[in-house]
Design a protein that fits this description.
alpha/beta; 3-stranded parallel β-sheet; 8 helices; about 160 residues; single chain; two-stranded antiparallel sheet; disordered N terminus
Length: about 160
């Protein structure tokens, strides 16, 4: 039986080693285990990082450099906290139906590319009360399923 890396076949943007977080580095998985359908059961549709990636491209902001500059240029307190709000107006962008759909698609695509055939994505109460919530969720799901046949997802309220 041959062995393969658990992240083999993922796009370069999904390389956990680039983030410094790679808990399965060096762990090999048998083809039999790798072939078992996967489910992502606790995904968060984090607006900030997802919208950053959508707006700024796959690489987005160099958060490590941004954090170093923030910590060195602004002392603890309100000045530093105010800098956090200047990155992107996430609420304004996420209020746009096409941006919200792109954010949902981004989280679902990550799950499908990681090998999942089913995903449960958690959203806050305010988000699920959007009038277009289910319509946009299903549209994003259909886009991902077109690229990954058989993939399905359901939203959950947190």
């Amino acid at each position: 039986m041959t062995e393969r890396s658990p992240v083999e076949g993922r796009e370069p943007g999904h390389d956990r080693a680039a983030t410094g977080l790679d808990p399965l580095r060096g762990v090999t998985v048998s083809e039999r285990v790798a072939a078992i359908p996967k489910a992502d059961l606790h995904l968060h549709a984090e607006a900030g990082p997802r919208i950053d990636r959508i707006v700024n491209g796959e690489n987005g902001v160099d958060w490590a450099d941004w954090k170093r500059r923030l910590m060195s240029d602004y002392p603890p307190g309100m000045d530093r906290l105010n800098q956090l709000a200047k990155i992107l107006d996430v609420a304004e962008l996420d209020a746009r139906p096409e941006m919200f759909q792109a954010r949902v698609r981004d989280v679902l695509k990550d799950s499908a590319e990681g090998g999942a055939i089913y995903a449960e994505v958690r959203f806050g109460r305010e988000t699920v009360l959007r009038p277009d919530f289910m319509e946009r969720f299903r549209m994003a799901e259909a886009q991902v399923a077109a690229e990954h046949p058989g993939f399905v997802a359901e939203p959950l309220v947190t």
